[in-house]
Amino acid sequence: MIFGFFRRAESRRRLIAGLHMRIDRAAREPGLFRALSVPDTVEGRFEAVCLHVYLVLRCLRSLPLPAPDVAQDLVNAVFAQFDASLRELGVGDVGVPKRMKKLGAAFYGRANGYDAALDAGNRTDLALALGRNVLGDTDGHRAGPLAEYVIAADSALSKQSLDDILAVGPLFPPADRITTPSGAGA
């Protein structure tokens, strides 16, 4: 199914646009802001989008071809959205490239930090990174539930195929049902 879709550019754009839309929808779930304390601000929404895009890209890295192409197309679509958003916020043509460079560095810096913590299975480091980047919480104490959400999302995504992700997913856990397990410090 997937290879047929990628033969035509328009089909490919529609698939990526649908995936991007579903990621944006997940990043706007009210539970993220109410239950997991993500700030309902421009910066908080940026962080929520980055986090969800990161989780999907992490999943795509482990999937067979054409997942790398999907990942690259998704990154291109997301950064095109960031560019358009900056322009909507009134950033001029001269300032957009500099801001985009900063956004790219922020995105990949966060991804590297989240990867290191998830790969090591270290909830504390994940909570610290999420607290610092998403919540503005330097000691990570408030980020425990958000870390549990990320761990649950990473686990759920790891069970999805590329066909599933493009057709109906990515499927993220309900943010308002996340609980911090006892003894899981953050």
From TrEMBL:
InterPro entries: Ubiq_cyt_c_chap, Ubiqinol_cyt_c_chaperone_CPB3, Ubq_cyt-c_CBP3-rel. Pfam families: Ubiq_cyt_C_chap. Transmembrane segments: none annotated. Residues 35-170 form the Ubiquinol-cytochrome c chaperone domain. Belongs to the CBP3 family. This is Ubiquinol-cytochrome c chaperone domain-containing protein.
